[in-house]
Amino acid sequence: MLYLMVRDAPGFIRFLKAVFGAVEVTRAEAPDGTILMAELAIAGESLVLSEAGGPYPPQAITIELGVAREALDGMVRNAVAVGAAAERVAEGAVVRDPAGNAWRLRAATV
Q: Domain-by-domain residue ranges, the chain?
């Protein structure tokens, strides 16, 4: 399971839903609406995140995902549509989300 501390957790969740079809499993919020913890499912895998802050500043990371070759172009288009920068590389694409994380989307081979 991947656990991320992100800036603008609601925006990051919208990005994950738009690009990867993430499904929100659970969410816990503080009284002011700050996301304390949210679990999302992406292609059967769990990703947990919370709003960065205090002793846990946001840090951009690189995540590599193997995706179906036929889904790759659509994911890149969706990412750009929600504010990401994308660069095509030989084996797929690198998408940098609005929080600065780099998503290496590698076309999976069968």
A: 2-108
pLDDT of residue 43: 79
Q: What is the pLDDT of residues 3-57, one digit of tens each?
A: 889 888 999 999 999 999 999 999 999 999 999 999 999 878 899 999 998 888 8
- CATH number for the region 2-108 comes to 3.10.180.10
Contact predicate 94/87, CB 8 Å: yes
Q: Is 71 helix (H, G, I), strand (E, B) or coil?
A: helix
**For residue 65, which of 19, 26, 23, 99 has the smallest C-alpha distance?**
19
Do 77 and 36 form a contact (C-beta atoms < 8 A)? Answer: no
Residue in the structure block whose two tokens are 């690189």? 62
Q: From edge to edge, which strands make up the β-sheet containing 2-6?
A: 2-6, 45-51, 35-42, 23-29
Q: What is the pTM of this model?
A: 0.85
